[in-house]
Please model this.
Amino acid sequence: MAAPVFGRTPTCLNCIRRIITAPTSSPLASSSASWTAAPISPFSRPQIRNKSKHHYDEGVIVRLLEDIPRYGRKDAIFRVDRGRMRNLWYPKNKAEYMTVQRFAELGLSRKSDVGEREHDFRAHERAGQEVEEEAEAAPAAKTAAEEAVSAYTIAPERIHALLATLVVPTITFHRKPIPAAAAPEPETPAPKRSPLLAQHVQDLPPSLEKKKKDSSSKAAAEPQAIFGSVSTTDILLAIRSDLALDPEASRIPLDARSIRFVGMEDEDADRVKTLGEWEVEIAVPGASRFVPEVQFVRRTVQVLPAEDAE
Model:
């Protein structure tokens, strides 16, 4: 049996198995001797893929019912994208489908009467019609970035007026205070009492009375800590709730970086953790530093104990 001749290494597993196992006669050996071909690895040569024979969609044949710039005159017959015909022209009665039945009704031939699109036909007229039609067929939803860009069309003076009008003068938050731990007082020896004094009379030394007054005044002067904090993000949410009442003001692109506490420069300058009042600045988007009267809007932030809210 003659050895099969292959132009290249076969990729079929059955063919490779037949080449490896089939005995063949060697021209250099005796007639009775037989030998087996060496195993051929299917990875010895890369697989070669030919060009795909898939036929691409050339579109659908249509007949124009009116003149369309950059496509052709009325009654012109040519191929066009299926999506354009389905979404734009057919719903607006600008073109019709040329089916086999329609070709027969008009006495036309599918082979000889199908022309080409005229790209230069009235191209100077309504050059943006194609873009406008596509925008009408598939209106794209505005992204957050596009809304932010459109919001900058509002003048900074108008933004300053909206913020000054709609944002309340005092933004109030309620937080639960942390109870202050009483510092242990040093034990002092009981003063010697005269046996002539009555039992209900308390004679505290002047130094002890002064210490108690100083400790009470110091505790009242220190700000009381709260559970959690009030950050610029909390203030931003409160401001946005006020701006949401006006359609124009709701487009103002504010973020937490637009708000800062006046006079705070430490690491936690974007939040407060005690009860009290603070002044904040709201930066006006798009305002120039050369016009300071519209650059910021100042408001007061007040943090009260949660018990007062009830």
